């Protein structure tokens, strides 16, 4: 057992790596599951604990010859989409899962649900997810999804953040979401273990909570199959057959698997980290990237029971209640990319990079000081998919009729899954969603130049995207976006495809350089960064260009 404070000291003594080194990838596990030395929050690996068919040959049930819709991927979005298709009356809906339900990224997700976001559409999407997991599924199946309503607490350590939370509270009132802005003293009374000395206040949402990935997906598929849908596990998809009609329009014709093919006019790509590979089968570009995403589970903490989940946006951490312990995680500002995504990575984990994770430890110990002397029971570091603008990818791909996307959820697939699954089902059945899903719609990449001079996911040479984990509502004029924009520079290297971007923040400088598939630090030829480049977070940046243009 390690202590959080010891882990932080060890990370601090290691030589600082450059972000270029941070993009060097190490695949540390395979489809066989976590390595023996890996500490996961289970007595045995997920393969041993949950897969009675380990080593079984063939799909879990015979493949139908035809289907009206085939959903690829048995994670949160796939199961939610299948459930809502069946609930809206779609017959002949089939879900294909390469291994077992949740085996990709969903099984290790934190499962947090925060009801308030800066977008009114997202507030509605989150509200629907909450209704599905807390009420609808239980009424329909008689099963408990694992939903726990312990509340949520947003931390404001500066005046701008507190003002943002006040706006969120006002938005919540319009949608019936109960929330309260608390003073530091009120926050201390609610959460006695919290350090409030550096706080301006908090936003408390009593009906936030936590979802159980396995329980939710199992209950979703139970409800869907009761309405006639089919779930077929252990059935890897190997190809998507496409035809060109008399007008020259490309259309989905069939899904091919290792065990046969299914004729279908509609495919839904809910493959998560593997969505890019599924897209390539159909000739569709899916602009997302896979990264290592981690959290640790602590030993028992006296007095933590029944506390709300905590989100500190400025420290980029969350504290999730897990019984009498906490899960500590957050968005990595210097992430490790998974460059070559393995198709054999089911219920697998990577080794946790303590140097990358150190920032979360520091933020967590500052917020809940008792963590400094609390042991670490287990670590979880798995793959997660992220998009250039931190928005999910949804809707019908313009270059292929009948090919829909439901992927790239930036570690928010569980909490957005219910609302987005419903909208995706409407999209498929009625040709359009019920809500304004423009910011998620993959089609807007084809409507002309984006603010960056390119288009969302277009892959054109030249355009740049700067992106990172969202830490502020940049649409809000009170957020200090100008500070980050002013601190960014880009350098091009004549004669090759290298590009370099540096971002200056209050603490550190980040630098990424691409060169012929490698990451390298070379001499810089400074040039101003185009003002039209979209900046989400200036503390760490990544620029897609040339061979990295799949991000653009």
What does this structure look like?
The structure is a single chain. 25% of the residues lie in helices and 23% in strands. The chain is built from twelve helices and 27 strands. A nine-stranded mixed β-sheet has the order 1-18-14-17-16-15-5-7-6. The protein is globular and about 70 Å long. Mean pLDDT is 78; it is low at 15-54 and 446-552.
Question: What descriptors fit this protein?
Answer:
12 helices; disordered C terminus; 552 residues; 27 strands; alpha+beta; 25% helix; single chain
- Provide mean pLDDT, rounded: 78
Instruction: Work out the radius of gyration.
Output: 23 Å
Form type: globular
Ends: how far apart? Answer: 43 Å
- Beta-strand proportion: 15-25%
Which consecutive residue ranges, at least 5 long each, have pLDDT under 50? 15-54, 446-552
Helix coverage percent of residues? 10-25%
Main β-sheet, in a few words?
9 strands, mixed
Task: Assign the structural class, choosing from mainly alpha, mainly beta, alpha/beta, alpha+beta, or little secondary structure.
Answer: alpha+beta
Strand arrangement, largest sheet? 1-18-14-17-16-15-5-7-6
Question: Helical stretch count?
Answer: 12
Number of strands: 27
Protein name: FAD dependent oxidoreductase domain-containing protein
GO biological process, one term: sarcosine catabolic process
Domain FAD dependent oxidoreductase: 69-427
GO cellular component, one term: mitochondrial matrix
Briefly, what is this?
The protein is an alpha+beta fold. The protein has helices at residues 4-13, 19-22, 46-50, 76-87, 120-141, 159-174, 184-190, 213-226, 275-282, 354-367, 413-430, 481-486, and strands at residues 2-3, 69-72, 93-96, 112-113, 152-156, 180-182, 201-205, 209-210, 230-232, 237-244, 250-257, 260-263, 267-269, 289-298, 309-312, 317-322, 325-329, 375-386, 393-396, 403-407, 466-467, 488-492, 499-504, 509-515, 518-519, 526-528, 542-543. A hairpin with a 6-residue loop joins strand 22 and strand 23.
